[in-house]
């Protein structure tokens, strides 16, 4: 098909410039649309709002549950008032084997947790604190707050009051009913050579708090072992 006849006063050069501008404008519009689509679809990395940190010196407790991640002996003898003792030894064995999630959730019910509460996790060792936090998070605990300072220092300097703590009951006193965060769990084969499972869990807490959404490989016993 031939091109349209030139209008009065219009040159072929002028028409070429106009058509070129129109084509350039269409290309720019398409490029902008594609850029906006990429921005909308790109996954955002945001800190996990249900996993935060706070200074124990400014802590005021209301309906939150206090979780003491120190050893059970220390938790009882140097007790934080109304704290619940949950040492890592409760769910990690001597050789690094982690209890299955069903048993962990039963234990949390025996500690009086339902999962719907906000829990505040203390320890003297940050790794213990973050290991317990990771297990609670993966089990489905709604909201967790980690305290920066060692709990013994807070007790010594009056940041927190002493009192009676408690350990798990022999039976469930609550039902831990919130769903497991299965999106963050991936079955992994148990490796007896990996002894620092607590360290892996503690690192995972920091990773999730920073916005990472990769699943945790929950070690399970390999068939035949």
Would you kindly provide a written description of the structure presented here, covering whatever features stand out?
There is one protein chain. This protein has helices at residues 12-41, 72-77, 101-110, 126-139, 151-156, 197-209; strands spanning 51-54, 65-68, 84-85, 118-122, 143-147, 185-189, 216-220. Helix 4 (126-139) links the parallel strand 4 (118-122) and strand 5 (143-147). It is globular, with a radius of gyration of 28 Å. 35% of the residues lie in helices and 13% in strands. The longest helix is centred in the first third of the chain and has 30 residues, at 12-41. It is α/β, with parallel strands linked by helices and 225 residues long. It has one domain (51-220): Rhodanese-like domain (Oxidized Rhodanese, domain 1, 3-Layer(aba) Sandwich). The protein is built from 6 helices and 7 strands, in the order H-E-E-H-E-H-E-H-E-H-E-H-E. The strands form 2 sheets. The protein has a 5-stranded parallel sheet. Strands 6-7 form a two-stranded parallel sheet. The protein starts with 11 loop residues before the first helix and ends in a 5-residue tail after the last strand.
Notable characteristics:
225 residues, single chain, two-stranded parallel sheet, 7 strands, 6 helices, alpha/beta, globular
């Amino acid at each position: 098909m031939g091109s349209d006849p030139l209008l009065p006063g219009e040159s072929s050069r002028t028409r070429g410039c106009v058509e070129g501008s129109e084509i350039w404008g269409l290309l720019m519009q398409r490029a902008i649309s594609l850029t906006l689509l990429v921005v909308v679809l790109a996954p955002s990395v945001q800190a996990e709002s249900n996993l935060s940190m706070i200074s124990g010196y400014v802590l005021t407790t209301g309906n939150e549950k206090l979780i003491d991640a120190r050893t059970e002996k220390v938790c009882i003898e140097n007790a934080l008032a109304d704290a619940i003792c949950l040492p890592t030894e409760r769910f990690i064995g001597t050789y690094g084997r982690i209890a299955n999630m069903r048993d962990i959730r039963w234990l949390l019910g025996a500690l009086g947790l339902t999962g719907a509460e906000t829990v505040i996790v203390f320890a003297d060792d940050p790794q213990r604190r973050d290991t317990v936090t990771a297990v609670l998070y993966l089990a489905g605990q709604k909201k967790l707050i980690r305290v920066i300072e060692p709990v013994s220092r807070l007790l010594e300097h009056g940041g927190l009051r002493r009192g009676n703590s408690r350990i798990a009951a022999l039976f469930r006193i609550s039902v831990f009913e919130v769903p497991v965060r299965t999106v963050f769990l991936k079955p992994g084969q148990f490796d007896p050579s990996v002894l620092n499972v607590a360290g892996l869990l503690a690192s995972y807490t920091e990773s999730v708090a920073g916005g990472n959404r990769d699943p945790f490989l929950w070690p399970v016993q390999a068939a035949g072992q």
